[in-house]
Design brief:
Elements (H helix, E strand, L loop, with lengths): L2 E13 L7 E8 L5 E7 L10 E7 L29 E12 L5 E8 L2 E8 L11 E8 L2
Antiparallel strand pairs: 1-2, 1-4, 2-3, 3-7, 4-8, 5-6, 5-8, 6-7
Length: 144
């Protein structure tokens, strides 16, 4: 299966002055699993505001059949049906740090998407398919 995890998140805070021009840092909480996420997002091309509901997914591949993609860019991805068609904002990154939580059963994953960072904290049993150095896709869309 391509999707590792997916949930709807409510954006609790947007810091438009975070680090870079056109990049905001959002804090959001998932509605089903109780995940907490802090995410740098290019709000110049994908505006996000406090109170927005977003669907966020992490996936190992964009291929609908779940087959893993190549390590290098494949230009044919733009001509095929993929998971990206179901979302509005997609980026690719690497899990660079995993930290066990102080509270039993929680884990925090740190992921870099070309310098835009994500911190995802949740119950370890809901995030068992994420590993250190794993390549992942972040897929986002505004929820209806």
């Amino acid at each position: 299966m391509a999707v590792i995890t997916e949930d709807q998140f409510e954006v609790r805070q947007v810091d438009h002055e975070a680090h870079f021009d056109r990049v905001s840092r959002i804090n959001a909480t998932s509605k089903t699993f109780g995940f907490k996420v802090t995410l740098d997002i290019n709000t110049d091309i994908y505006p996000v505001e406090e109170g927005d509901d977003l669907t966020l997914a992490l996936a190992r591949t964009l291929e609908l059949d779940g087959s893993l993609t190549h390590d290098s860019y494949d230009p044919t991805i733009l001509t095929r049906h993929t998971l990206a068609e179901r979302y509005e904002y997609v980026c690719h990154g690497t899990v660079y740090k995993v930290q066990a939580g102080e509270k039993g059963g929680t884990v925090t994953f740190y992921i870099s998407f070309g310098g835009l960072l994500m911190k995802l904290t949740g119950q370890i049993q809901k995030l068992t398919n994420i590993e250190l150095n794993m390549k992942v896709y972040l897929l986002i869309r505004h929820s209806q």
